[in-house]
Amino acid sequence: MLLRKYRENKEALKQIGREALAESRRMGLTISAKDRQNEAKDRAKRERNKDRAPATVR
Question: Where is this region: Disordered (predicted)?
Fold first, then answer.
């Protein structure tokens, strides 16, 4: 139960971070190198997961 809640909260915080970065870009603010690096890792991870078949299909 607690582990599930932790994962849900972790994903929610990641989404808030993505939205904050998008808003910063819209406002023309600078994005830190660390944020750009994290964003690239996140994008690559989503691309890899999109290519994989769901576990229920395997």
Answer: 27-58
